[in-house]
């Protein structure tokens, strides 16, 4: 596009891409147009239409995926796919019907799986359940009990507990806890992206800006494909913000 401020061009581009089935490209074009003219009625309407089409496409994808997983006897996978679909479309009749089939199978699967876990793994699972229920302080106590029972703090189980406890600390704004547990993970998994991002955010909250930007730059060095666009964009935004803060502190 020659004139990047030509709003109608973004509308026409979005419409063409939408008609081709390229919903991501269409939405990107529309958002660029809205960046120039946020109140444009045609662009706002198209944005809503595309986002709705994306939602329905994701729902259909989860349904198809769950049906395939159920045929392959991947009960846990099928349950997660149906659950993800229902979060996007709670009243979808096909998904609800499939959930009625999958749920009892999944509950039996979970009972059998839990029965086969050793006590340490059961503690970690208990912590995970509390975390999902937003009972963060209780989850922290359970993860701590699990870690206390593990002699090898470099084991996969220990690292998962450190990582999940760091996520709990973040939820209650205990940034020193986030930094400590994320560092424990990174001592053994130096390229753990979640730990790097969490620690960077905690460093920033503690006004340790230089430490934060080091972690952010490490994540960015892996590239968008490796870390995912959402994480890459998040870190890119953090880098710009941190650079400004550090420059202001120097001046």
Structural class computed from helices and strand pairing: mainly alpha
The termini sit apart by: 39 Å
Shape: flat
User: What is the radius of gyration?
Assistant: 23 Å
Tell me how many strands there are: 0
Architecture of the largest domain in CATH? Answer: Alpha Horseshoe
Q: On the 0-100 scale, what is the average pLDDT?
A: 94
CATH topology of the largest domain: Serine Threonine Protein Phosphatase 5, Tetratricopeptide repeat
What portion of the residues fall into strands of 2 or more residues?
Answer: under 5%
Task: Please describe what this structure looks like.
The chain has 251 residues and is mainly α. The protein folds into three domains: 7-114, Serine Threonine Protein Phosphatase 5, Tetratricopeptide repeat (Alpha Horseshoe), CATH 1.25.40; 118-190, Serine Threonine Protein Phosphatase 5, Tetratricopeptide repeat, CATH 1.25.40; 191-251, no CATH class. Helices cover 80% and strands 0% of the residues. It has 13 helices and no strands. It has helices at 7-19, 23-36, 41-71, 75-88, 93-115, 119-132, 136-148, 156-171, 175-186, 193-205, 209-221, 224-227, 229-250. Helix 3 (41-71) packs across helix 5. The longest helix has 31 residues, at 41-71. The model has no long low-confidence stretch (mean pLDDT 94).
